[in-house]
Amino acid sequence: xxxxxxxxxxxxxxxxxxxxxxxxxxxxxxxxxxxxxxxxxxxxxxxxxxxxxxxxxxxxxxxxxxxxxxxxxxxxxxxxxxxxxxxxxxxxxxxxxxxxxxxxxxxxxxxxxxxxxxxxxxxxxxxxxxxxxxxxxxxxxxxxxxxxxxxxxxxxxxxxxxxxxxxxxxxxxxxxxxxxxxxxxxxxxxxxxxxxxxxxxxxxxxxxxxxxxxxxxxxxxxxxxxxxxxxxxxxxxxxxxxxxxxxxxxxxxxxxxxxxxxxxxxxxxxxxxxxxxxxxxxxxxxxxxxxxxxxxxxxxxxxxxxxxxxxxxxxxxxxxxxxxxxxxxxxxxxxxxxxxxxxxxxxxxxxxxxxxxxxxxxxxxxxxxxxxxxxxxxxxxxxxxxxxxxxxxxxxxxxxxxxxxxxxxxxxxxxxxxxxxxxxxxxxxxxxxxxxxxxxxxxxxxxxxxxxxxxxxxxxxxxxxxxxxxxxxxxxxxxxxxxxxxxxxxxxxxxxxxxxxxxxxxxxxxxxxxxxxxxxxxxxxxxxxxxxxxxxxxxxxxxxxxxxxxxxxxxxxxxxxxxxxxxxxxxxxxxxxxxxxxxxxxxxxxxxxxxxxxxxxxxxxxxxxxxxxxxxxxxxxxxxxxxxxxxxxxxxxxxxxxxxxxxxxxx
Length: 651
Hints:
This protein is an alpha/beta fold. It folds into 3 domains: 7-278, Rossmann fold, CATH 3.40.50; 281-469, 3-Layer(aba) Sandwich (Rossmann fold), CATH 3.40.50.12780; 474-640, 2-Layer Sandwich (GMP Synthetase, Chain A, domain 3), CATH 3.30.300.30. It contains 21 helices and 27 strands. The strands form 7 sheets. The protein has a 5-stranded parallel sheet, sandwiched between helices. Strand 10 (229-231), helix 9 and strand 11 form a beta-alpha-beta unit. Helix 4 crosses helix 5 (120-129). The radius of gyration is 25 Å and the shape is globular. It starts with 11 loop residues before the first helix and ends in an 11-residue tail after the last strand.
């Protein structure tokens, strides 16, 4: 049974003690280190957290202090959430791929006194900006590799701090329980910074009640228990990981599995075989790309079998998954396909034991969504925001739709204003933005309604459909409503397209920038005996433009099957010479397009698309892996794409 958010267990430290008492020997966290999975039970996690909390106490961590956590998913870093919380301090997770300047802003704005960093890379970034962090007193690192020669009085290893904490505990029996008991559900639990799509990130203050009351509903909705397993691989600074991994894991008592590194996520996923899994649309897109690339290398017989059963799955797979009526012949044929294709495919991806999977963060392409459901993966959409502790709408197992995010969840109220913007109230609604009362007043009304910034509509039976960000929805000159994200998701379903940015507001037609999937196209180019020297060269090849044009025109044919979507077909496109990069400010750390920056930086490319030019010169800033910057210049070709008259599905 999942733990409940009673008065006794209304904070994470209290839940940790509850889990250590009621399920002491159940696995709580795993980490793959040097190829071997290391496991900590709930009682062992409590011991580690208590030692870390004592160490924090010796450093002078006090109630309401802010403790930053920076790094990839590690059990030790999850302990670094619970330990300061037990002391009444507040964790502030920071994106591990943040550049030094981005990190400095969050650490300074968040009034951070202590930092827990994963390794030398993160320590170096903190050190590079420490002279502009007057409140920072100590930096603690988890991985000592490369740091042996660092001689700073404020730098400690996590092992040192835990040893000090164990010594402190011997002299102060029961300090952890005593301090944790002071925490209450209404207390500030965490400050999670937004991705900063339109400006500086904002610090969202979430209480224990915000998180745990929302998580209670979500845990009950999907029947999560201590027997579930999940892979903790998404950025710890993202509210999605915090809610779905840390929060629900502590509440339901299930095991969090941390991969060896970001590069081994897919292989570690296959080894763990989670029962509960969350991934943003980009991850699902990448999985499809890897499947399609592998199939291109398969024999003709296997390719034929794959496509035959995939067509069958598209026709009846979702109905079978949802327990709906299907003919006996189709059911038998699908069972054969499951044995020959779908089952092995799920196993290769790591989903042989999957019971429920979610996607959220931004809209997912319906083709991508239906693909996974059709092969037997119970993939559903979750709608929410940082400001509501993630949870707003959930899809029921027997009523999942690609074009909606489901009805409002238990305890959630949703209404649409006169402009179609989604407003909501729920137990998860945030306390406010840290040190930003003005933005809090703009976003949250006095009676608790929050402006989501999303444009939506309700279906007749109460499902919410999110159209796009309200500010991004526009109209073509002929009055047709235009959602760039809808078009972009259609494009990204194709295996050779990594990212896309569509334009059309107050224009006569729709055009697009394309980012190629370099890995997928490299494999394709090798099979086609096409030589290339790197990303810029490959992106500009005539053969690549021909291939991408086929995929753009496939999207156009799909759009032409709906009379309302015919006008938003893509008339022209170009392939960018570089990937859109968060380090260059073009997308956020959560892979959302910063449209204002794209429009400003590449205005000449947009105008060239609409002028009818066949080539255009571009110079774009680029940040290299070592942190240095430069300018990448290229002459880009522009391609026309065939558009189609309305054609019904039957036609």
